[in-house]
Amino acid sequence: MDSIFYVIVGILFILAISDLVVGVSNDAVNFLNSAIGSNAASRKVIYAVAAAGILVGSSFSNGMMEIARSGIIHPELFLFTDVMMIYLAVMLADVILLDLFNTFGLPTSTTVSIIFELLGAGVVMAVFKTTGAGMPLDAIAPYINTEKATTIVSSILLSVALAFCLGALIQYFTRLLFSFNYHKRLPYFGAAWAGLAMTSLTYFLVLKGLKGTSFATPEMLQFMSDHQAGILIGSFVFWGVVFQISISVLKKNIFRFVVLSGTFALAFAFAGNDLVNFIGVPLAGFHAFTMWSQSGLEPGSMTMESLNYPQRADIIFLVVAGLIMVLTLYFSKKAKTVTETQVGLSRQEEGEERFKPHRLSRYVVKGAMYSGRVFRMFLPRAFWRTQAKNFSPPKVSDDNTAFDLVRAAVNLTVGSALIALGTSFKLPLSTTYVTFMVAMGTSLSDKAWGRDSAVYRVSGVLNVIGGWFFTGLAAFALSGLFVAILAWMGFNATFLLLGIVILAVGRSILAHRSSEKKKEKKRKGTLFQLSKRKDFERLKVHVSRTLQQAAKSSSSAILGLVAENRQSLVKSAKELEDLRMEYSQVEVDLYRSVKSASKDELERFHSYFNLFGNIQDLFQSAQFLVNLCQEHVRNHHNPPTGKQKELLLEVSNRNSQLLEKAAKFEGVKDEQKALDDAIRALLNYQFSGVQEGKLGAKNSLLHFRIASEIGDLTEVAEAISENIREIIQSKSPS
Description:
By secondary structure, the protein is an all-alpha fold. It folds into two domains: 3-508, no CATH class; 529-729, Phosphate transport system protein phou homolog 2, domain 2 (Methane Monooxygenase Hydroxylase, Chain G, domain 1, Up-down Bundle). 77% of the residues lie in helices and 0% in strands. The protein has 24 helices and no strands. The longest helix is centred in the middle third of the chain and has 42 residues, at 254-295. It starts with a helix and ends in a 5-residue tail after the last helix. Residues 525-529 have low confidence and may be disordered.
């Protein structure tokens, strides 16, 4: 029996490595987004700066390790076997949960997940102990450190509101000071603002961040405390002079330096604050194992008072953890997926939106617009003129830049300061929540959420926040379930649970690869500058594939109707919707192409406009046809009769032949005549059946609508083919 604990400790450390990988994949969004979104430097430089911050910050995290040991549970009331089951269940649940969020590209909180996992496992284990002893359920209260848990959760919730408000407020005044055309005002205000930002980072990361580290001596901390004001003033003067020289003499954009410094600081704060989420539990388990192995007691008789006392982690554990996080940062593909979500919601430019609007997001936007109109009545017009002047973004921006360096600097400065402040008070704030809400607050102040994008962005924010609540509930439930299985079956269930984790992670890896392949296919197929010859050729491929898909979907819809095959109809609808979503990006690229084209090129875009309008009509007709057939089968209405099947299949074959030829951009006169004859035969049979009373209303209306939609489908397909031929015959793109 005792040998199993050596295996458990080994599994805990393996899970710690896995947790570091999935955790950093999720949390990389916190310190990479601002630098990547603002295009502050190349990805190699940004990753190198973040890696340095992680390595240094990991050595500062020692003071946070107590959260995993005694921050949520009272370990003195649990036996050694109890805490080992709790820690094992927590790590197994954490790997599954974080990997799930990474797969869907949603940033969640590793802090909230670990806290609620400890809470769920602790509560369920306490239930087993109290009920086993014949005690009532309310006897579990002493087992949980409710005061500390409440403080942690309330501090996280407070930090969310504070992050959003501070981000919005500081960004508002910063933008008012610099405007979007900040280069002109940089010589006057840049050095002072950047000096203040660097001083803020110095204060929170050095003066506050040193508390609880493995190498900070009491004398060092006392010296800094006694000379705090002098250090801050000296820092502000030093950085102010350096930045003024950089602006006036060297002609450098100091915001790039501030953004990269902020990236380092935020990676530093992340490692110092969040490392406990990944290795705190395994280290607590290792410490418990060490205490038990030295005690000579039976594992089921030793209580864990020792976990109440501070225990510094070996620096080697912290350094190795930092190295694993750095390697994950460079090689994790899921980290990039999560990063895309927040950058997309912060983007200054309009474009394709990932999230669809829903009723709540519409209500929020409507309420905000109404409040804005009321608020506008109480301020003078001069104020609004000044605001409009400073908050007008450039008309043309780099497509690779989601927002400018000014906003990126505010994101990083405010976010890292808040997180480091929480770390100094040993409160495990959620770096994800803080950085996300700061980014959303600055986006709001920067008017990135205009009327054309607000409902989508708000929907995205609400979806992400909803995912946060799901994180807590799922973490509590999953870890509670795992510890219940362990308490019921014993440590022999370890391998069963480990198999579940491996299976879950394996499935998510396959799902993520499939999703990324689809995205890569879409990225390769999308258009960027329609005025270029290579992009026009890609457009032709897109259009041809669309016509072929319309032929396939309409044919599958009729076959599914005839055979009453619901799976075939669902598949047809999904394939058509996937292709339609691709064209939403193509339409955005049309907008961007027009925006950056010269006046001489604008005439060509009339042809593209007509083409894209016809493609939208094609999608509508094809989708309506599929929906007709799907609804008929779903409602279990009578299927087509023998003769109707024959006539429908003939119409379907003629329709497919026409669309396939249109996909080659050739004339379809002969195919159109054959299709018209097939549709006429179908309608004549239907008219006769109605007059003779053989065919009912549902059946007849279905066939009338199918005939009408196929007629519309082929008409618009012919128009699309003609559009392409006209573009080819006109002055081709250069």
